[in-house]
Each structure stands twice: as C-alpha cells, then as structure tokens.
Amino acid sequence: MPTPSMEDYLERIYQLIDEKGYARVSDIADALEVHPSSVTKMVQKLDGEDYLVYEKYRGLVLTAKGKKIGKRLVYRHELLEEFMRIIGVDEKRIYSDVEGIEHHLSWEAIDRIGDLVTYFEEDEIRVKELKATQRKQDPEADEGEQQ
Predict the structure, then answer these.
(1) Binding residues for Mn(2+) 2, per the UniProt record (predicted)?
(2) Angle between helices 107-122 and 124-137 (to 10 degrees)
C-alpha cells in the first residue's frame, strides 16, 4: 500500500499524464509545490515499488498498477469534493478539507460516501431539502452565505 505522500504523487502524476500526455519532474514539482529533488527521490521510490518506470532525463510512465491506483485516487478526491459541495461546505474550503481527510478514510468509507453522493445526485430535490434543513438548524449560515 502506498503511503499518503506516495498517494499524492501518484494522484498528481496520473492527472498530469491524463491532461498533457506526460509528466515531467518539473511539472510534478510545480503541481505539488515541492523541490524537483524531492520529486526525483519519490519517483525513484515509486519506481522501486512498481508504480511507475522512471529513467533519468527521459521521463516516467505509470505501470498498470500505478494507473489503477492513480485513477482510484483521482476518483476519491473528486468524489470527496462533490460530497463537500453537497453537504454545503464553503467552496473556498473544499480543497483543503479534502486534502486533510482523504488519506484517513478507508476505501469502504469512500464507497459509502459514493453511495450517498449518488443518492443525492439522483434527485436534485434531495439536495435542496438538505440545504433547507441546514438553514433551519443554523440560521447564521444564511448570514455567512450573504456576506
């Protein structure tokens, strides 16, 4: 199992390859706001764990194992962002909240959150009812939304 740090790298590498067709050390460093030397060390570690193949000065390619994990990590992140939107978390806080919790949830919990997101997405009225319930329980939330 990859560590949370390895997951962050795999998720971002997967996204870069999906978006651009490739992922260079400098792209990864920029995306994760780390030094290129840190990326090189992690990429070598991921290579050793068979998540990717890395050749110095030539780039990297995700293995089937790396693609599978990367895709699942991107799904997890996007799912948690959508869940946060549904439950009414302020858009400015969603990214940092997801980054804070995504590594601490089991895949079973992620699957159940997925079920819940699907439940709400199947019927938009459910989301409206949830937001109405939240306003009744926390009248100050309306004031915060208006500011």
Answers:
(1) 11, 77, 99, 102
(2) 100
